[in-house]
Structure formats: C-alpha cells, structure tokens
Amino acid sequence: MFLITIANGCSWLFEPTKEAKNDLYEAGNKALNEGKYDEATSYYRKISRSSPFYPQALWMIQKVPFKKGVASFNLKKFQIAIEEFSKVPRHSPDYEEAQRYIKLTNYNLLLQKYTKSSSKDRFYMIKDLVDISNELSNINLLKKNITLIEKELKIRTSNSKTKYLINLLWTIVELSNEKDLYEKTLKYLLTDINYFYDQPEVRTVVFQIIGNIKIALM
C-alpha cells in the first residue's frame, strides 16, 4: 500500500516534465478518465519508486476515491458514494468538495427514507432535511424543502406542528434571499390565510413572516 503526505496546493512539485512519458502513468490516466477506477489504481501502483512519475502516481491514487464517489453519486448509488468520499484524505485538494458531497448524499438518503415513511415520522425527518440544505445553502435543495413543507402543511395537524413548520419555512426563505422564493411563500401564506388566522398561536407567526417578506420585497 502506498503512503504519502503532501501539502495542499503542492502537487506541482511532483509533476513530471512535459517531455517525459510513462506508459503505466498514461494508461492509469486513461483508465481513470474512463471510470475504470480499480484498473487505474493498478496501473499507478506498478510505477517504480525510482520513476519521476512515482510521486504523481501516488497523488493520482488519492484522487480515485473522490472520482469514484462522484460517479456513484450521479448513479444514485449513495451508500457507495458515502464510503468513497469518506476515504478522501484531509490534505487532498478534493477534501472540502468531498465533505460537501457527503452532506448532499446524506440529504438524498434521508429524502429516500422520508418518502417511504409515515406522516408522523416525516414530520421529524423534515427538520434534518432543512438543516442539511440550509448548511449547504443549495438553492435547489432549499426549493425542494419548501415544497415538502407545503405538502406537510396540507395535512391539517396540531397548532404547534403547524407553527413549527411555518417557522421552518421561514428559515429557508430568509436564508435563500431569493426574490422568487419570497414571492412564492407570500402567495402560499396568503392563499391559506383563513386557515392560519383561525389558529391564534399560528396567526401571529404568519403575520410576522408576511410582514418580513413584504419588507424584503420593497
């Protein structure tokens, strides 16, 4: 097993000259680009320690888990993706992006569980979905969560749960700072205003949010 510690941003120190060529290194790169990750790793590992390509081969081996993770994520093989992203070392330039993908993958795994769960279980899962999307500030996930919350609100439930969901909705909209989401949320609240108005505990919160949205849209 190859081991190497490389400072982030210093990979250029190990880049062979453009004139130099190594069949194993080139074969490894070709396999990596074709998504043949095990084959690529095998080629890189065959490069001699005395070769000027050896340090770069080690560096490329460390890129394999990230590339494999991305490929698995795109194929919705989320468990494999998590395993591969978790292998990316901290000193790798791909580390931060791998961590972002781990959060995205966890979101998708939780969403799969959410869609198969009962109404009661979904209520508790939606907070975790919102937390992940808010942390990532991913506009597509924020929009998806708004849709989920609106669907949950259509299931007439207790005043406390309704208030909780309304507050969750506001955290998403406020974080996004997107005009279209402000407008969409305002339209939604006004459309269902009679239902919210009949719940004193909810009414105050809804009016506050409507006021905040109107100020934001000025």
Descriptive notes:
- By secondary structure, the protein is mostly helical.
- The chain has two domains: 1-116, Serine Threonine Protein Phosphatase 5, Tetratricopeptide repeat (Alpha Horseshoe), CATH 1.25.40; 118-218.
- It contains eleven helices and no strands.
- Helix 2 (37-45) packs antiparallel against helix 3 (54-74) and helix 3 (54-74) packs parallel to helix 5.
- The longest helix has 21 residues, at 54-74.
- The protein is elongated.
- It starts with 22 loop residues before the first helix and ends with a helix.
Task: Write out key terms for the chains shown.
single chain; 11 helices; 2 domains; 218 residues; 0% strand; elongated; disordered N terminus
Largest beta-sheet characterization: none
Under CATH, the topology of the largest domain can be stated as Serine Threonine Protein Phosphatase 5, Tetratricopeptide repeat
Shape estimate? elongated
Q: What are the secondary-structure elements, in order, as H or E?
A: HHHHHHHHHHH
Q: How many DSSP H or I helices?
A: 11
- Write the CATH architecture name of the largest domain: Alpha Horseshoe
Name of the CATH class of the largest domain = Mainly Alpha
Percent range for helical residues?
over 70%
Total tally of structural domains = 2
Q: N-to-C terminal Cα separation, in Å?
A: 61 Å
Question: Would you report the number of β strands?
Answer: 0
Detail the poorly predicted runs.
1-14
Write the layout of secondary structure elements.
Elements: H1 23-33, H2 37-45, H3 54-74, H4 78-85, H5 95-115, H6 119-136, H7 139-154, H8 159-176, H9 179-191, H10 193-197, H11 200-217
